Amino acid sequence: MMSDSAPEQSGLRPARRAPANASWMNQATTAYGSSYQPPQSATVIAPEPYTPQPYDAVYLDGLEDPAPPEIRVAGLAEDTVAPLNQMSPEPQGQLPPGARDGVFQRIYFTGTWLPRVEDEADTLGFGELETGVVFGFPFMRRDTPLLVTPQFGVHFLENSAALDVPSTLYDTGVEFRHLRKFGGGPWAMDVSATVGYYSDFDQSSGDALRVTGRGIGVYESSPTTKWLLGAAYLNRAGASVLPIFGVMFEPTPTSRFEAIFPRPRFLWQTPGSQPGGDERWVYVGGEFGGGVWSITRPSTGDLDVINYSDWRLLVGYERKITGGLSTRYETGYVFKRELEYDSATPDVSLDDTLFLRAGLTY
């Protein structure tokens, strides 16, 4: 038999004695299963020390920092939450096409003339001047703005005495409009409401204060096709609610078909246009015109409300300069003209006429 010092003399390390309660055997059996067989000898031979090779070296300071994960919010078209190692900026988003940075968006001025073509009692000439300023405010997100438009208009009537209406009518109001696209999907909406005061400014009347509005849902079935469905609340006698429906189709980059009731148009881009910067369009179309005013009857001094409506076929030319002065010219034929009174005065069917319109937008 070998003595206790024999392992040291032979170059072997002395064996470690097992604990008296043999708990290490129970742990091994639990970890590996019942098939595990503990070694029979208590002597353990130590392996040679591990010597790393040059190609095994790993230099941690030479590794690149892992990129933080991107965070997306469901339903939004863009990443609006900053990575974990950055400060979270205010949501920006893309501005709608043609929009300016800042609150001021545009100012417009429009002049329209419907001449009195015949010297008869049932003819009525109109001269109109309208102006407005559009301001844009972020509404939750920068790319879903709230547009606020104070506007003012004045109408000069020719042959007004024969129809017992004032010679001058006024429009004042503020329009609130909201545009929103729902995430990266095909749906969008365009809703607006206008609070205005429409009268001859002769006497104050609650009928002069009117609220109008519209709501339109837009479905983009393809990059060149959009379907529209909605309604306009005109707050007029005989045409209080008007449906809005149709399709916008761009068969080519230089043509657009807007088959939308009640203002259809077909547009062609002319040579010399610069898409997105200086676009020039020729178009044909139609529209529904008119308005409602609280008035004082010149013959009696009584308060009344008149409702004027017409249909128009038109041809026009528009030059749209992004960030610059845009111009518009239109002419056409006006028909189905009606002048209605809230009082017992009989309504009047007015003669057809022509119209000219010019507009500036900056």
State mean pLDDT (0 to 100 scale).
80
Distance between the termini: 110 Å
SSE arrangement, N to C: HHEEEEEEEEEEEEEEE
Just name the CATH architecture: Beta Barrel
CATH topology: Porin
Number of separate domains: 1
Largest sheet: 14 strands, antiparallel, barrel
Q: Low-confidence segments, ≥5 residues, pLDDT <50? A: 1-47, 50-91
Helix coverage percent of residues? under 10%
Structural class: mainly beta
Total DSSP helices: 2
Q: Report strand %.
A: over 45%
Shape: globular
Computed CA radius of gyration, to the nearest angstrom? 40 Å
* Strands, count: 15
Report what the structure shows:
The chain has 362 residues and is mainly beta. It has a single domain (104-361), classed as Beta Barrel (Porin). It contains two helices and 15 strands. A 14-stranded antiparallel β-barrel has the order 1-2-3-4-5-6-7-8-9-10-11-12-13-15. The longest helix is centred in the N-terminal third of the chain and has 10 residues, at 23-32. The N and C termini lie far apart (110 Å).
Which SSEs are present, and which pair or pack?
Layout: H1 6-9, H2 23-32, E1 104-114, E2 125-139, E3 141-158, E4 168-181, E5 187-199, E6 209-222, E7 225-233, E8 241-252, E9 255-261, E10 265-269, E11 278-296, E12 303-321, E13 326-341, E14 348-350, E15 353-361
Antiparallel strand pairs: 1-2, 1-15, 2-3, 3-4, 4-5, 5-6, 6-7, 7-8, 8-9, 9-10, 10-11, 11-12, 12-13, 13-14, 13-15
Notable characteristics:
2 helices, 14-stranded antiparallel β-barrel, single chain, Porin, mainly beta
Brief description of this entry?
4% of the residues lie in helices and 51% in strands.
